[in-house]
Amino acid sequence: MGVKTQSCVLFLWMYTLTFVKSQECTLEQFVTGPMFDSNYDITNLAATYPAGEQVRVGCNVGYSGFFKLMCVQGNWESKGKACELRSCGHPGEADSADFHLEKGEDFVFGSQVVYTCQKGYQMVSRSNIRRCLAAGWDGVVPVCEARQCPPIDVDDNVQVVGNPEEAAYGNVLRFSCKSRDKILSGSQELYCDENGAWNGKAPICEEITCTVPNIQNGFVNGNVDKYKENEYLSFRCNPSYKAGDGKPSKCVKSGIRANWSPTPLCKPIVCELPLGSQEGTQYEPVSTNVFSPGETVRVTCGNKYWIDNRLIKSAEITCKENGEWNLRPVCQEVTCSNQKPQHVDNWGVPWRGRITLDETARYSCVKDYKKPVGFDLATCTREGWTPNPLCQACRKMTFLVICVSMLPFAIQPYGFFMCLFCFSVKGRCSGSDVLNGIVAGPYNDVYYTACREGYKRFTKGWWATAECKNGKWSGLEDCIANTTCGKLPEIFNGGVTQRPRHKKKFQITCNTGDGVLVKDLTCSEGEWLSNGLPPQTICASTAKSCNPPPKVENSIIKASYQREYFSDSEVTYQCRDNYMMEGQGKMICKDGQWMENIITCTPYCDKLRDESMTFTADKEIYLNEEFIRYRCDINNLEGIATCVNTKWNKTRECEGKKRCKYLPQCNNTIEHRWGTKSTVLALSKRKKLKQKALVKKHLEKPIFISLDSLDCGSPPFLTNGDTTETSRSDYKHDEKVHYSCKAYHTLEGGPYRTCKNGKWIGEMKCLKPCTVDEEAMRSHNIRFRHKPDDKLYSVHLEWIGFTCTSGTSHVGTIGMRQMCVDGVMLLPTCQ
Length: 831
Known about the structure:
Blueprint: H1 2-22, E1 25-26, H2 27-32, E2 40-41, E3 48-49, E4 54-56, E5 58-59, E6 63-64, E7 67-72, E8 75-80, E9 84-85, E10 97-103, E11 112-117, E12 121-123, E13 129-133, E14 136-137, E15 144-146, E16 148-149, E17 158-161, E18 167-168, E19 172-177, E20 182-185, E21 189-191, E22 204-207, E23 209-211, E24 218-220, E25 226-228, E26 235-237, E27 241-243, E28 250-254, E29 257-261, E30 266-268, E31 271-272, E32 281-284, E33 290-291, E34 296-301, E35 305-306, E36 314-318, E37 332-333, E38 335-336, E39 344-347, E40 355-356, E41 360-365, E42 369-370, E43 377-381, E44 384-386, E45 392-393, E46 400-407, E47 418-425, E48 437-443, E49 446-451, E50 455-457, E51 463-469, E52 472-474, E53 479-481, E54 494-498, E55 505-510, E56 514-516, E57 520-524, E58 527-529, H3 535-538, E59 539-541, E60 555-557, E61 570-575, E62 579-582, E63 586-590, E64 593-594, E65 600-606, E66 613-615, E67 621-623, E68 627-632, E69 638-644, E70 647-650, E71 672-674, E72 677-682, E73 695-699, E74 721-723, E75 736-741, E76 746-749, E77 752-756, ...
Antiparallel strand pairs: 1-3, 2-5, 4-7, 6-9, 7-8, 10-11, 11-13, 12-15, 13-14, 16-18, 17-19, 19-21, 20-22, 23-25, 24-26, 27-30, 28-29, 31-33, 32-34, 34-36, 35-37, 38-40, 39-41, 41-43, 42-45, 43-44, 46-47, 48-49, 49-51, 50-53, 51-52, 54-55, 55-57, 56-59, 57-58, 60-61, 61-63, 62-65, 63-64, 65-67, ...
Subcellular location: Virion
Organism: Gasterosteus aculeatus aculeatus (three-spined stickleback)
Pfam families: Sushi
């Protein structure tokens, strides 16, 4: 019985052991199974695992993932994901450099990137390669620096804008002459190219000279090779040629160069007829207006025009050897003088009037002269005024006739009675009555005239005044019927002439270059009719006029404003104070367009004068953006003064020179004088800086006391900065406090303030950085020359280069390279 029992127990134990073993999971199962990946790290796994065991499987170096195995009834079950290559992320952007993947297809373990510097930059790092390792990218982002150009020598008489000593790729130097008596020989600009070399040599400044020009069809007299400023060129043209301009050519400075003005040239000798239709002039032949010497042209004038003399209307003119016509090839209009002829008293021609053929004028003769029989008006003819003479002498008579009558007569708006006189007395004026009118007076030697009902004055107005002086009338005028037209209206830019055999019809003629909108003036019921057009618009200009001349920044035009300018009009510009003219300074209107002439008013600053600082100024004027370094006399601090739009922009203001109040024989003491006596201010140790503790003692002689015991309160506040350590409420004599500025701010002066005799001394300032963002640059059409187009902080005195965006060009006087000065940076503009 016992043996059987032991055998049964042994059998059960062996069965259980076999069953449990059959529930285990082995490493071999996992390695040979479908879940295995060569990227798994199985070095630390056991050969077998019991049922229900969970195993975490790691990844090989360079891989990451989350993977678990669970043994379930002798089989492995998985949880998580397989191992993947570890990512290193972005390798990092390098300023002025690009990179590409040399190995791999993504930024994961085993990949490798290579950095390459952009054009004009060179690698300064030891390696340009970064590899993705298990711990991330190895090394650091490489650094590319702009290629440096070697220092360039500039002559002392050449002004340079930019830094010729330290220049990098893209930097530009601009040159000009310090003296206005010099011109630049060479390039006005140099730039540092992509290879770190200048694109040329520095220019020099030379005397203003002009070289002998090569004149086609002409030659220069003498053996002179160069001409000095303001010297004239002596040249001659070959036979059959003449100088192209009537003015002699002079050597002048034009901008930064010296040129001949006007340009010397020789052109063929020809005679030219005026271009365009000339009023009252016809030419034959009409096919050309250019003729060679010896050729002839027939000129035929209109009925009211003449050539050669007033009686000739047609002539043949000849082109002479010198290119001039033997007669002026333009017909002249027949006109008569507006000057009062001899013995004429009342002359009905305005002194500025223009009288043409067949026009008439009213007139009267002086005493003892009369009009010829049958003539009442003076008529303009080709021989002059008819009749000739206008006034004939008559037999002199001495008589006295006085007629006095009292007639009711009202001259509106006054409405009163006047005494009317008609008289002829020796020594007085004869013929005082007005035809169809009334004369009243004299009142203070003045006569008043008005017209009767149904009549009007020949000129404008319903009443007038007349005077008798030295036996002659002035202002006496007959009245005409209301149905008769009075004085012809004045035609702006033209005139009026009576048509033959038409007493009430007049022809309108416009000045040269003007077209006639209305050909005739007609008298109807006492009114001049011109199709409703006012006289000032009848003659409309056919020659194209120009609008007001273009505006030149910082300049004025030396003439009054006009709404339009006729062809050949010329205007002269003048720069405002502290701006210099570049260009000739003149523009001419030609056929509706202003002839292009680049005029620029460039700002400059006068020589800096400041007694509170020490500097070296070797010029009388400085161009925009030029700067000088200075040192303040009072505290020995340095600064920079930059010429910005005619004003000196200083990085700091220097205090004026002060006389020290401390006496040399008494160290660490102070004396204050009130009136004629000395007052010593002693601060109590117990009350320290409180005002009520001041003890005033008025003495005949100054007394000095030690100030070693004077303390200071809390350190002064520093804008955009602070003390480097926690400040206290009081400080002893000679104690110092250290200051520093915020990020990107630059400390000027300092960095310490010291407690001296109860006061904090020490000057310092935190100069602000400049911020230029994308929006500001977009409004100016610019971008950074060597920086990424995002927000950029530039510290004080740092230079930043800009360039125009695509399709725009630089305008204005603000340069493309600007310095940050205490938070202020001027932005250039492109359009």
